[in-house]
Automatic annotation (TrEMBL):
Keyword Hydrolase: yes
Organism: Nitrosarchaeum koreense MY1
Example GO BP: proteasomal protein catabolic process
Transmembrane segment boundaries: none
Function: Component of the proteasome core, a large protease complex with broad specificity involved in protein degradation.
Propeptide: 1-12
Catalytic residues identified in the record: T13 (nucleophile)
E.C. no: 3.4.25.1
Record localization: Cytoplasm
Family note: Belongs to the peptidase T1B family.
Keyword Protease in record: yes
Protein name: Proteasome subunit beta
Summary of activators and inhibitors of this protein: The formation of the proteasomal ATPase PAN-20S proteasome complex, via the docking of the C-termini of PAN into the intersubunit pockets in the alpha-rings, triggers opening of the gate for substrate entry. Interconversion between the open-gate and close-gate conformations leads to a dynamic regulation of the 20S proteasome proteolysis activity.
């Protein structure tokens, strides 16, 4: 990967995904930057794909949004044709295929896909080359070295969603403090047997002091 491409993907974001025993947590900061210029301080980097699935965006906003639209379309189509939700693994494979088909003019994005289906919680990381990795926990973006430090220390395989929320928020908060490209608040979403839910400000503050 060239330094130029790597900078485009890694600069200005921290996203975190954690698979708990009863669900998946996705967490991200809210800053969109253009170089060292803060383009937007209220960017939604967590997107709902379907009632049971979501993703986080790192990289080019337009490229990432295009991927979100394609995944939503196919997820809705599957729900209509098959009378049920698409599996999280299938969403991850579809995302991989989108990246792979556009490798001549690659999408500058790094995606975390998570959700809860008939097989339980699942979390995947898909990079711009279409590589798919199933993860227990993962972080992307320029603040990821800081976030990984906390995740590797705190993660356990028997975490509950409630515990995972606290760890994810702390990891992104730590990245905001120590990374120039990350900042301006945190969004967090939970996907479990009750579906996709984006936490309110009050719910976030009940977990940790932001």
């Amino acid at each position: 990967m060239s330094n130029n491409v790597e900078e485009k993907i890694l600069h200005g974001t921290t996203t975190v995904g954690i698979k708990a025993k009863d669900g998946v947590v996705l967490c991200a900061d809210m800053r969109a930057s253009a170089g060292y210029f803060i383009a937007n301080n209220n960017t939604m980097k967590i997107q709902k794909i379907d009632a049971h699935a979501g993703l986080t965006l790192a990289g080019g906003v337009a490229d990432a949004q295009n991927i979100v639209d394609i995944l939503r379309y196919h997820s809705n189509l599957h729900r209509v044709e098959k009378q049920g939700p698409i599996s999280i693994h299938s969403l991850a494979r579809l995302c991989s295929l989108i990246f792979h088909q556009n490798r001549g003019y690659p999408f500058m994005a790094d995606i975390l896909v998570g959700g809860y289906d008939a097989n339980g919680p699942a979390l995947f990381n898909i990079d711009m080359f279409g590589s798919v990795e199933q993860k227990s926990y993962v972080t992307t973006g320029s603040g990821s070295p800081v976030a990984y430090g906390l995740l590797e220390e705190e993660y356990r395989s028997d975490l509950t969603v409630e515990e995972a929320k606290k760890i994810a928020l702390r990891a992104v908060k730590a990245a905001i403090v120590r990374n120039i490209g990350t900042g301006d608040g945190i969004n967090i979403a939970v996907m479990d047997k009750d579906g996709f839910r984006l936490l309110t400000e009050e719910q976030k503050k009940a977990v940790i002091e932001l």
